[in-house]
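Pipeline run #58 for the internal structure catalog. This entry was flagged by the ingest filter as a single-chain record with no existing model, so it goes straight to prediction. Upstream metadata was stripped on purpose; only the residue string is passed forward. Reviewer on rotation: M.T. Logging verbosity set to normal.
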Amino acid sequence: MSSVIPVVRNLYVALLHFPMRDRKGKVVATALTPIDVPDIARTARTYGARRYYVVTPLPSQRAIAERLRDFWVEEEDWPTRKEALELVAIREDLEECFQEIVQEEGEEPQVWGTTAREGLPYPRLSWGEARKRLRERPTLILFGTGHGMAEELLAACDALLPSIRARAGYNHLSVRAAVAIILDRLKGENDDRNG
């Protein structure tokens, strides 16, 4: 038995590298962090995601992600890591991911953004409402890199998930940690808790 939680066919995760903000607020394409590919794949597999998209417009960055994925998929001595890395799909833009999900699911997914920023003028779900909606239709959860997603990307989401530790004085988690926390809050073993 490779995991406790069965694969749920309607959960998708995307790690985006454009359009992101840099330290000064400028919109940029961020560089891939190599550890994000296998680590987020393992988290996605643990929590039953159907696919984990690594999305970047930069051909050199897509090539790096593909090499990382292929290394683990071809490595026979690590079968559980191989199983996780088989979820990884490297794409040039978010629209490709969206259309793939529509084709596979037969309907458009709801798209949820994640951000540590508070006070944004976009709809924000509670954890309880997100868990309820997650069971109702396919869902694509977007995670940003750099200093977060650009406004136009956040505005295009159907809703934003709650910030993690929004009222803490320091709130700058690695994206790997944020993915794990968010997926656990949505699909952990205590997913029937109120939220």
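catalog note: The mean pLDDT is 89.
catalog note: The chain has one domain: 11-187.
status: ready for reviewer M.T.
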